[in-house]
Design a protein that fits this description.
The chain is α/β, with parallel strands linked by helices. The chain has a domain at 6-162 and 281-298: Nucleotidyltransferase, domain 5. The protein is 34% helix and 24% strand. It contains nine helices and 14 strands. A six-stranded mixed sheet has the order 3-2-1-4-7-6, with helices on both faces. A five-stranded mixed sheet has the order 12-11-10-13-14, sandwiched between helices. Strands 5-8-9 form a three-stranded mixed sheet, with no helix packed on it. Strand 10 and strand 11 (148-154) form a beta hairpin. Helix 3 runs antiparallel to helix 6, helix 4 (188-200) packs parallel to helix 6 (223-241) and helix 6 (223-241) packs across helix 8 (259-268).
């Protein structure tokens, strides 16, 4: 197989994903658990080479475009946040130091919002990919994940955003709290019930979370229902807080199944129009758009 002419990298806290491309065509892909959280600064280049060394040519330098936590303060090289309002991509990419002369690595900066204080790192690339595929789109993006994001986009710029720890709270509660004994599997009815309760009375969230445990003990409630209700309660409380974003708006969901489907299902109960878009596809489209920001000497020739 021929060598890719560029490499796309999504470097999260827990995982590393890479794709070798010719133009916009994926030739190869690989992944590992060598996320930012497992690496010291000197470990980033070896972690990348462990996946892509066989893709590289000794006859040329391969551009590598990176989004995500590799650009954090604890990452490979810090890519300072850009202040909104601004396009999701813009300004200069930040070059990471490389010993292997076959690589030229550039990192996409994240975005920052001063009031209320908030940051985005990685999702800006998915937003850019979505806008590249949907030019002229105005509205709200929801990017569910460990830290879900609600983003208002207008005239090609990120205007405001809000982050919620919903995914991280679900992981902590389902794996490390007393609720771990009462949650497993999935039940759609339990999820719908949890969303309604989380939306209706978000101030009772902590009490209703414990009721999952109590109902398991006293009423032999199915753990599948408990797990789905836990997710629904958390997502419902998030939707209650994010109401200024989705009320009267169209929402584009960017995420991976099944989580994005759960959010779309929850918004459907509120009659919010939602379209769903694959997170990986948007990441690759965004990194392809970021290639235009490379220094002129590293941009591919267009015949």
């Amino acid at each position: 197989m021929s060598a890719p002419d560029w490499i796309a990298v999504d470097w999260g806290t827990s995982h590393l994903r890479v794709w070798g491309l010719q133009g916009d065509r994926v030739l190869r892909q690989a992944a590992s658990d060598q996320g930012m959280g497992q690496l010291a600064r000197e470990g980033f280049e070896p972690a990348l080479l462990a996946l892509v060394a066989d893709w590289l040519s000794d006859a040329q330098v391969t551009p590598v475009l990176v989004c995500g936590m590799a650009g954090s303060r604890q990452g490979w090289v810090e890519a300072p946040y850009r202040a909104i309002p601004c396009p999701p991509l813009g300004g200069a990419l930040v070059q990471a130091p490389c010993r292997d002369l076959r690589l030229s690595v550039h990192v996409v900066p994240g975005l920052k919002q001063h009031r209320p204080a908030d940051v985005i790192r990685g999702e800006e690339t998915q937003i850019a990919g979505f806008l590249a595929q949907n030019p002229g789109w105005d509205g709200v993006l929801c990017l569910p994940g460990t830290h879900s994001k609600w983003v208002h986009v207008s005239a090609g710029e990120v205007v405001s955003f809000q982050t919620f720890l919903t995914g991280e709270m679900f992981a902590l509660l389902s794996e490390r709290s007393v609720l771990r004994h009462s949650v497993s599997g999935w039940d759609d009815t339990g999820f719908t019930e949890g969303v309604a309760q989380g939306m209706e009375r978000p101030e009772r969230l902590l009490a209703r979370l414990f009721s999952i445990r109590a109902e398991g003990l006293l009423q032999a409630r199915d753990p599948a229902s408990g797990r789905a209700r836990l997710s629904g309660l958390l997502i419902g409380a998030e939707l209650a807080a994010a109401k200024p974003y989705w009320l009267g708006q169209r929402v584009a969901m960017i995420g991976a199944a099944p989580l994005a489907q759960h959010y779309a299902q929850a918004l459907g109960t509120l009659s919010v129009p939602v379209t769903c878009h694959d997170a990986t596809e948007m990441t690759l489209a965004g990194l392809a758009a970021a290639r235009a920001l490379l220094p002129q000497t590293e941009r591919p020739c267009v015949n």
